[in-house]
Amino acid sequence: MPQSRSVARLTRRDLLGLAGMAAAGSGLACLGTVLGYLALDRLISPSRPTVTLSPPPTRPALFKQIDRPGILTRQDWGAQPPNHEAPNESGFYSAENPDGWRVYEEDLRQVYRTVVIHHSVLYEGDDLSTMRAIQEQHMDLRGWADIAYHFGVGQSGQVFEGRPLTVRGTHVQGFNTGSVGVVFLGDFSVSYPTSLQFEAGRRLIDWLALRLELTHLAGHSDFNGDTDCPGQHLREMLPLLAQSAGLTLGTGGYVAAQG
Ligand SMILES: [Zn+2]
Predict the structure, then answer these.
(1) What is the per-residue burial (b if ≥16 Cβ within 10 Å, else e) of 108-128?
(2) How far is CA 244 from CA 12, 18, 173, 217, in A?
(3) Residue whose C-alpha is closest to residue 230's, from 181, 170, 160, 176
(4) Is 161 helix (H, G, I), strand (E, B) or coil?
(5) In sequence order, what are the residues at sequence separation of 6 or more whose Cβ sits closer than 8 angstroms to the Cβ of residue 178?
(6) Which architecture characterizes domain 59-249 according to CATH?
(7) How far apart are the CA of 95 and the centre of ligand 1, in A?
(8) Ligand 1 center from residue 64 Cα (angstroms)
């Protein structure tokens, strides 16, 4: 087809330039006839990973099959300790300080219902530097006591411990209580997760769903409509993550905080 030939003649540099124009919201109307969004998406690497899923096993079968994934601890990646003087998450939770650092006293299986998926947008060239940069941004610029998310999933397939799972996150405004925060490192409005990254995230979420008895999986933008997070390319893969873990897609499992 003439359209494909015209696409094929464009260099990668041309395509990146066109992607930049698209991102800036200019030239979309004329581009649309030559380069559909999908054609453009496919030509910018990395391409969407190929994912093959078998039907999810039953929960009892999962108990036998899922091991805890390897997770790099905070100490291992050089996380800063929490700052309980942070302006936007200061002190500890109480009736008088409902926005304070909240440590869940309950069995975590009674706390968590939904896993919320994010992208970091920020990427510093490697996973370790990116985790450190995110924590710095959240503590120094956002004024939170710690990194917002409970886990990070790197492009190398490495999984990182974020904020302890025993502590409420700050990753989904108005819906943090009972929501696990998982961030995939990268900007998935412009590219896809790597195959290693997607697989590591899938295994992490399978394990969390089982361990915490989760019911739902949602993207950040499902809860907070003013964000594009986790980016269109990761968002279109959320049904696969939900299917793999036996979770329902969407916000329907959220239970409002008690007190
Ligand atoms: Zn987000």
Answers:
(1) eeebbbbbbbbbbbebeeebb
(2) 34, 35, 26, 11
(3) 181
(4) strand
(5) 111, 112, 113, 114, 254, 255, 257
(6) 3-Layer(aba) Sandwich (3.40)
(7) 27
(8) 32
CA of 26 to the centre of ligand 1 (A): 25
Place 255 in a pLDDT band, splitting at 50, 70 and 90. confident
Tell me the whole-structure pTM to 2 decimals.
Answer: 0.77
Q: What is the mean pLDDT of residues 51-80?
A: 72
Distance (angstroms) between ligand 1 centre and the Cα of 108 equals: 22
Residue range(s) in the chain whose domain bears CATH number 3.40.80.10: 59-249
Q: How far is the CA of 171 from the centre of ligand 1 (A)?
A: 6
- Centre of ligand 1 to C-alpha 115, Å, is 12
The CA 219 to ligand 1 mean position distance, Å, reads 8
Spacing, Cα 116 to ligand 1 middle (Å): 8
